[in-house]
Design brief:
Blueprint lengths: L2 E4 L2 E4 L4 E7 L7 E8 L6 E6 L5 E3 L7 E6 L4 E6 L8 E9 L14 E2 L3 E6 L1
Parallel strand pairs: 2-11
Antiparallel strand pairs: 1-3, 3-8, 4-5, 4-9, 5-6, 7-8, 9-10, 9-11
Length: 124
């Protein structure tokens, strides 16, 4: 699976941005899709993930502001980011994992495929 993230850019605090991740392959719908981010000088952190059935899970820091959703027909996962804050500035990475039960998909090590990242900068 190859993942191509896009949609990053510069936005003012309080604004919105949508990043997307297009996946190759015909088995996209079975993957757990995740978004992670890495701010300058910080470790990579979990943002959100989506199971093929539509269930989602969010980091507390973005809950209520970000929405992950997927279009299985288009092999694409999106991250809609609203009410952006300067602390949201980071390179955002999408990732895909073969589904298994009882796996903590907030851990980056559980993902098999990664996109190249797209930079989101939120100005104050």
């Amino acid at each position: 699976v190859q993942l191509q993230a896009s949609g990053g850019g510069l936005v003012q605090a309080g604004g919105s941005l949508r990043v997307s991740c297009a996946a190759s392959g015909r088995t996209f719908r079975r993957y757990v899709m995740g978004w992670f981010r890495q701010a300058p000088g910080k470790e990579r952190e979990f943002v959100a993930c989506s199971w093929s059935g539509g269930s989602t899970y969010y980091a507390d820091s973005v809950k209520g502001r970000f929405t992950i959703f997927r279009d299985n027909a288009e092999n694409t996962v999106f991250l809609q980011m609203n009410s952006l804050k300067p602390d949201d500035t980071a390179v955002y990475y999408c990732a895909a994992a073969d589904y298994s039960s009882s796996v903590d998909y907030t851990k980056g090590s559980k993902y098999d495929y990664w996109g190249q990242g797209t930079l989101v900068t939120v100005s104050s």
